[in-house]
């Protein structure tokens, strides 16, 4: 699902935060897991989650060789009789499955009553045997990347390349089988973002390995690549503006009618410097657009583009307030963001898999830089340059017969995608549908919906589960029938109107589009917070996606 920028340090995985040893489960398909206490990141609020470190081969082609540990967590069904097991696969690649534990009382609540929820931590990530660079990041990024790779390759040899999707899929096949030793239950595999590639790979190596598969925000196995990121984001921005034109309030406030018109105005601003005193440069705007599109903050992104297109003296003050909050540290200081959890993401696993398995369609650095010269959403130059260096260091290191090959199986499958998903765009879904083999493999598209359908598809009835969760639950309960998609008619959809509090904090005026702003200092924002604490808390959902990167 979201990209994390974390400090890379060597981690030891010996104990939980309370000092208790994590229980181990021997490599044996015919013995049940040895469940015990979870590390802090995997502890559920009610304390019912249990965990184990499952031993399994580093190289599945040499099962008698070196073993690694992979964390498995289990949240047992609240009812006396479980209807089955749901296995949850996190995205990234490199993201920790601890994310799912945080959702047990919210998005995943519809499943906790009658299903056991399992999380498999990807090999190399989090509390599983963890891959991380031991050398500190230095200004010479090329040297840093090479040293990191060389150190890890010296430690692991070519076994370093066993931290891949196919091996993780075999891990999943093994733990699903092991979970059925004492009590056979049907198994359902849910993957989100990169987790969908993991689930598809599972279907390749174990075509009858589960009763059904759910793919949320689907990553195509081929004819796709991470180098297309910038192009996909700008295509999604075009779709977002089309929705704005269909929304009476948004359309009436927007002062441009097309991306081409806006690009011409931005070129005048950033090249001819026709907007005096503006702190935003093109790359800051491009990064803000990435954040706004990937994290559903259109209520800030659209007014920002509107103000840039007009760029009068009031707009300069408002935009500089936003720039100060997002890019100069004011927002992080006010929100007091905690330090990133080093267990939450593995950059090494991310780089290995991205540059060897999500790299089928490539763009060279020159082409990407040329594209970004006038694009509205792009990675900053320094990030694209680092990606270019990482590709040279980590790419072309391994392959296997399943890489860049479509899934082919007969398990019932539900694929979900939003039509405003820039990370895994719905325009690629035909690549998935072409691999469907029967009528029980289905695709459902949700309008005005971003990445991670299960978690973002809220309906107007706040008391119910998300639409994605409703569809998935309906599918699991009858995998042979078309799931009920009636909730799509009740989606909240896009929000083009920021709250008065969010607008005041970020732009200096209660109206994000207009008004005479004041220059916002930390003192001013704290006074706003004290004047209406409840409204400030409600605005967290707007603030946090813009600063937590």
UniProtKB/TrEMBL annotation:
Residue ranges constituting the AB hydrolase-1 domain according to the UniProt record: 85-230
A GO molecular function held by the record: hydrolase activity
Keyword Hydrolase: yes
UniProt keyword terms in alphabetical order: Hydrolase
Pfam families: Abhydrolase_1 (PF00561)
PANTHER family: 2-SUCCINYL-6-HYDROXY-2,4-CYCLOHEXADIENE-1-CARBOXYLATE SYNTHASE
Family: Belongs to the peptidase S33 family.
Name of this protein: Alpha/beta fold hydrolase
